Protein backbone atom coordinates (compact mmCIF):
# COMPACT_ATOMS: atom_id res chain seq x y z
CA UNK A 1 0.00 0.00 0.00
CA UNK A 2 2.82 2.39 0.81
CA UNK A 3 4.42 1.67 -2.54
CA UNK A 4 1.23 2.46 -4.42
CA UNK A 5 0.87 5.69 -2.48
CA UNK A 6 4.40 6.60 -3.46
CA UNK A 7 3.45 6.77 -7.16
CA UNK A 8 1.54 9.99 -6.65
CA UNK A 9 4.41 11.40 -4.66
CA UNK A 10 6.90 10.40 -7.35
CA UNK A 11 4.84 12.32 -9.87
CA UNK A 12 4.23 15.30 -7.56
CA UNK A 13 1.10 14.76 -7.22
CA UNK A 14 -0.92 1.93 5.61
CA UNK A 15 1.28 0.37 8.40
CA UNK A 16 4.36 2.54 8.61
CA UNK A 17 7.98 1.50 8.63
CA UNK A 18 8.84 3.84 11.52
CA UNK A 19 7.50 6.55 13.81
CA UNK A 20 9.81 9.29 15.00
CA UNK A 21 9.65 12.38 17.14
CA UNK A 22 12.07 14.39 15.02
CA UNK A 23 15.64 14.95 16.10
CA UNK A 24 16.84 18.50 16.60
CA UNK A 25 19.60 19.07 14.07
CA UNK A 26 22.82 21.00 14.44
CA UNK A 27 22.61 23.29 11.39
CA UNK A 28 26.38 23.73 11.43
CA UNK A 29 26.63 20.20 10.06
CA UNK A 30 24.53 21.30 7.06
CA UNK A 31 26.75 24.19 6.04
CA UNK A 32 27.53 24.19 2.32
CA UNK A 33 31.04 25.30 1.45
CA UNK A 34 30.74 25.38 -2.34
CA UNK A 35 28.02 27.82 -3.33
CA UNK A 36 27.18 30.61 -5.71
CA UNK A 37 27.30 34.10 -4.15
CA UNK A 38 24.13 35.38 -2.51
CA UNK A 39 23.63 38.09 -5.13
CA UNK A 40 23.22 35.38 -7.77
CA UNK A 41 21.01 33.17 -5.62
CA UNK A 42 18.73 36.10 -4.80
CA UNK A 43 17.27 36.05 -8.32
CA UNK A 44 15.72 32.64 -7.63
CA UNK A 45 14.29 33.47 -4.22
CA UNK A 46 10.55 34.06 -4.42
CA UNK A 47 8.31 35.92 -1.98
CA UNK A 48 5.32 35.19 -4.25
CA UNK A 49 4.23 38.80 -4.47
CA UNK A 50 3.47 37.95 -8.09
CA UNK A 51 3.66 34.85 -10.27
CA UNK A 52 7.10 34.59 -11.86
CA UNK A 53 6.65 32.65 -15.08
CA UNK A 54 10.40 32.71 -15.71
CA UNK A 55 10.97 30.53 -12.64
CA UNK A 56 7.89 28.29 -12.32
CA UNK A 57 5.41 26.32 -14.34
CA UNK A 58 2.07 25.04 -13.10
CA UNK A 59 1.89 21.30 -12.48
CA UNK A 60 -0.85 18.77 -11.76
CA UNK A 61 0.04 15.23 -12.79
CA UNK A 62 -2.76 12.59 -12.83
CA UNK A 63 -1.48 9.09 -12.02
CA UNK A 64 -4.18 6.85 -13.56
CA UNK A 65 -7.06 6.71 -16.02
CA UNK A 66 -9.78 6.34 -13.37
CA UNK A 67 -8.76 9.61 -11.76
CA UNK A 68 -8.19 11.32 -15.11
CA UNK A 69 -11.84 10.80 -16.05
CA UNK A 70 -12.94 13.01 -13.16
CA UNK A 71 -10.07 15.43 -12.61
CA UNK A 72 -9.78 19.21 -12.40
CA UNK A 73 -6.70 21.28 -11.76
CA UNK A 74 -6.81 23.04 -8.43
CA UNK A 75 -7.21 26.80 -8.38
CA UNK A 76 -3.77 28.35 -8.01
CA UNK A 77 -2.56 31.91 -7.84
CA UNK A 78 -1.06 34.67 -5.77
CA UNK A 79 -3.18 35.74 -2.81
CA UNK A 80 -2.05 38.14 -0.08
CA UNK A 81 1.59 37.73 -1.05
CA UNK A 82 1.55 33.93 -0.98
CA UNK A 83 1.14 31.18 -3.56
CA UNK A 84 -2.29 29.72 -2.86
CA UNK A 85 -3.76 26.36 -3.87
CA UNK A 86 -7.43 25.41 -3.48
CA UNK A 87 -8.74 22.09 -4.76
CA UNK A 88 -12.00 21.78 -6.67
CA UNK A 89 -14.97 19.92 -5.20
CA UNK A 90 -16.72 16.85 -6.60
CA UNK A 91 -13.61 15.49 -8.33
CA UNK A 92 -9.97 14.51 -8.06
CA UNK A 93 -8.06 17.77 -7.86
CA UNK A 94 -4.44 18.82 -7.51
CA UNK A 95 -2.23 21.79 -8.30
CA UNK A 96 1.25 23.12 -7.71
CA UNK A 97 4.46 24.42 -9.22
CA UNK A 98 7.60 22.93 -10.73
CA UNK A 99 10.84 24.81 -11.32
CA UNK A 100 12.03 25.77 -14.79
CA UNK A 101 15.62 25.33 -13.67
CA UNK A 102 17.58 22.59 -11.98
CA UNK A 103 20.22 22.38 -9.25
CA UNK A 104 23.60 20.74 -9.66
CA UNK A 105 25.92 19.73 -6.85
CA UNK A 106 25.33 20.75 -3.24
CA UNK A 107 22.28 22.84 -2.38
CA UNK A 108 20.09 24.05 0.49
CA UNK A 109 16.47 25.04 -0.28
CA UNK A 110 13.44 25.84 1.84
CA UNK A 111 9.84 27.05 1.59
CA UNK A 112 7.21 28.15 4.11
CA UNK A 113 3.92 26.27 3.93
CA UNK A 114 0.62 26.35 5.77
CA UNK A 115 -2.42 24.10 5.56
CA UNK A 116 -5.47 23.45 7.73
CA UNK A 117 -6.37 19.77 7.77
CA UNK A 118 -10.12 19.14 7.69
CA UNK A 119 -11.66 16.91 10.35
CA UNK A 120 -14.14 14.06 9.88
CA UNK A 121 -13.51 13.79 6.14
CA UNK A 122 -14.24 10.40 4.60
CA UNK A 123 -14.57 11.16 0.89
CA UNK A 124 -11.03 12.31 0.03
CA UNK A 125 -7.43 12.53 1.23
CA UNK A 126 -5.29 15.56 2.04
CA UNK A 127 -1.74 15.53 0.68
CA UNK A 128 0.90 18.28 0.50
CA UNK A 129 4.45 17.72 -0.74
CA UNK A 130 7.73 19.56 -1.35
CA UNK A 131 10.54 17.75 -3.14
CA UNK A 132 13.32 17.40 -5.66
CA UNK A 133 13.45 14.96 -8.56
CA UNK A 134 15.70 13.98 -11.43
CA UNK A 135 15.59 16.39 -14.31
CA UNK A 136 13.83 14.80 -17.29
CA UNK A 137 13.49 11.32 -15.78
CA UNK A 138 10.92 8.82 -16.97
CA UNK A 139 8.27 8.20 -14.27
CA UNK A 140 9.20 4.55 -13.84
CA UNK A 141 12.91 5.33 -13.47
CA UNK A 142 12.55 8.39 -11.29
CA UNK A 143 14.98 9.25 -8.50
CA UNK A 144 13.56 11.71 -6.01
CA UNK A 145 13.32 12.83 -2.39
CA UNK A 146 10.09 14.23 -0.92
CA UNK A 147 8.99 15.83 2.30
CA UNK A 148 5.26 16.06 2.89
CA UNK A 149 2.10 16.12 4.97
CA UNK A 150 -0.65 13.53 4.67
CA UNK A 151 -4.07 13.01 6.22
CA UNK A 152 -5.84 10.00 4.74
CA UNK A 153 -9.60 9.67 4.72
CA UNK A 154 -11.16 8.95 8.10
CA UNK A 155 -7.96 9.45 10.10
CA UNK A 156 -8.03 11.71 13.14
CA UNK A 157 -4.31 12.43 12.76
CA UNK A 158 -1.97 13.71 10.07
CA UNK A 159 1.63 12.79 9.35
CA UNK A 160 4.86 14.41 8.27
CA UNK A 161 6.77 12.00 6.06
CA UNK A 162 9.86 11.77 3.91
CA UNK A 163 10.50 9.33 1.06
CA UNK A 164 13.58 8.37 -0.92
CA UNK A 165 12.60 7.05 -4.37
CA UNK A 166 15.11 5.09 -6.49
CA UNK A 167 14.26 4.09 -10.04
CA UNK A 168 10.57 4.57 -9.34
CA UNK A 169 10.44 2.52 -6.11
CA UNK A 170 10.59 3.41 -2.44
CA UNK A 171 14.12 2.89 -1.20
CA UNK A 172 13.59 4.30 2.29
CA UNK A 173 10.87 6.13 4.20
CA UNK A 174 10.11 7.75 7.52
CA UNK A 175 6.81 8.88 9.04
CA UNK A 176 5.82 11.07 11.99
CA UNK A 177 2.27 10.74 13.31
CA UNK A 178 1.23 14.19 14.49
CA UNK A 179 -1.94 13.27 16.43
CA UNK A 180 -4.63 15.98 16.29
CA UNK A 181 -2.52 18.88 15.08
CA UNK A 182 -4.87 20.07 12.35
CA UNK A 183 -2.86 23.14 11.39
CA UNK A 184 0.65 22.98 9.99
CA UNK A 185 2.33 26.37 9.76
CA UNK A 186 6.06 26.11 9.26
CA UNK A 187 8.96 25.59 6.88
CA UNK A 188 10.17 22.60 4.87
CA UNK A 189 13.86 22.31 3.96
CA UNK A 190 15.97 19.97 1.79
CA UNK A 191 19.79 19.96 1.87
CA UNK A 192 22.15 17.99 -0.36
CA UNK A 193 25.83 17.80 0.59
CA UNK A 194 28.02 15.43 -1.41
CA UNK A 195 26.55 11.93 -1.05
CA UNK A 196 23.83 12.81 1.51
CA UNK A 197 20.47 14.52 1.19
CA UNK A 198 18.53 15.58 4.31
CA UNK A 199 14.89 16.58 4.87
CA UNK A 200 14.01 18.92 7.74
CA UNK A 201 11.17 21.02 9.05
CA UNK A 202 10.34 23.49 11.78
CA UNK A 203 7.05 24.98 12.88
CA UNK A 204 6.46 28.71 13.02
CA UNK A 205 8.22 30.30 15.96
CA UNK A 206 10.76 27.51 16.35
CA UNK A 207 14.45 28.32 16.09
CA UNK A 208 15.88 24.84 15.61
CA UNK A 209 15.24 22.46 12.74
CA UNK A 210 14.02 18.89 13.20
CA UNK A 211 15.47 16.29 10.89
CA UNK A 212 13.04 13.86 9.29
CA UNK A 213 15.69 11.70 7.63
CA UNK A 214 18.97 11.64 5.72
CA UNK A 215 19.23 9.57 2.54
CA UNK A 216 21.90 8.61 0.07
CA UNK A 217 22.02 11.52 -2.33
CA UNK A 218 20.51 11.73 -5.79
CA UNK A 219 23.67 12.38 -7.84
CA UNK A 220 21.98 14.03 -10.83
CA UNK A 221 20.67 17.51 -11.53
CA UNK A 222 17.32 17.95 -9.79
CA UNK A 223 14.24 20.08 -10.29
CA UNK A 224 12.12 21.48 -7.45
CA UNK A 225 8.38 21.15 -6.98
CA UNK A 226 5.51 21.41 -4.51
CA UNK A 227 1.79 20.73 -4.67
CA UNK A 228 -1.47 20.02 -2.86
CA UNK A 229 -4.02 17.34 -3.77
CA UNK A 230 -7.19 15.75 -2.43
CA UNK A 231 -6.29 12.16 -3.34
CA UNK A 232 -3.60 9.51 -3.28
CA UNK A 233 -2.96 7.16 -6.15
CA UNK A 234 -4.87 4.27 -4.56
CA UNK A 235 -8.16 6.18 -4.52
CA UNK A 236 -10.68 5.10 -7.19
CA UNK A 237 -13.71 7.18 -6.18
CA UNK A 238 -14.20 10.62 -4.65
CA UNK A 239 -16.95 13.07 -3.74
CA UNK A 240 -14.80 15.81 -2.16
CA UNK A 241 -17.61 17.95 -0.82
CA UNK A 242 -15.18 20.47 0.62
CA UNK A 243 -12.08 22.09 -0.93
CA UNK A 244 -8.73 21.89 0.81
CA UNK A 245 -6.30 24.79 0.76
CA UNK A 246 -2.64 25.51 1.34
CA UNK A 247 -0.26 28.39 0.89
CA UNK A 248 3.45 28.50 0.10
CA UNK A 249 5.67 31.49 0.74
CA UNK A 250 9.26 32.68 1.00
CA UNK A 251 10.95 30.12 -1.21
CA UNK A 252 14.69 30.43 -0.76
CA UNK A 253 17.84 28.90 -2.17
CA UNK A 254 20.12 29.35 0.82
CA UNK A 255 23.05 27.83 -1.06
CA UNK A 256 23.66 26.13 -4.41
CA UNK A 257 26.81 24.97 -6.10
CA UNK A 258 25.34 25.51 -9.56
CA UNK A 259 21.96 26.44 -11.10
CA UNK A 260 21.17 25.17 -14.59
CA UNK A 261 18.72 27.37 -16.43
CA UNK A 262 16.34 25.55 -18.76
CA UNK A 263 13.60 27.77 -20.09
CA UNK A 264 14.58 31.03 -18.43
List keywords for this structure.
8-stranded antiparallel sheet, 8-stranded mixed sheet, disordered N terminus, 16 strands, mainly beta
Which value, in Å, is the CA radius of gyration? Answer: 17 Å
**β-strand number:** 16
Query: Tell me about the biggest sheet?
Result: 8 strands, antiparallel
By secondary-structure content and strand pairing, the structural class works out as mainly beta
The fraction of residues in strands falls at over 45%
Distance between the termini: 39 Å
Task: Please tally the helical runs, counting DSSP H or I stretches of 4 or more residues.
Answer: 3
Spatial sequence of strands, sheet with the most strands = 1-14-13-12-7-16-5-4
The low-confidence parts are 1-21
- Mean pLDDT, as a whole number? 84
What order do the helices and strands follow?
Answer: HEHEHEEEEEEEEEEEEEE
| Helix amount | under 10%
Give a structural overview.
By secondary structure, this protein is mainly beta. It is 6% helix and 48% strand. The protein contains three helices and 16 strands. The chain has helices at residues 2-10, 38-41, 65-68, and strands spanning 23-24, 56-59, 71-73, 75-79, 82-86, 92-99, 101-116, 126-134, 144-151, 159-166, 169-177, 183-193, 196-203, 210-216, 222-229, 245-261. The strands form two sheets. The chain has an eight-stranded antiparallel sheet with strand order 1-14-13-12-7-16-5-4, with no helix packed on it. The longest helix has 9 residues, at 2-10.
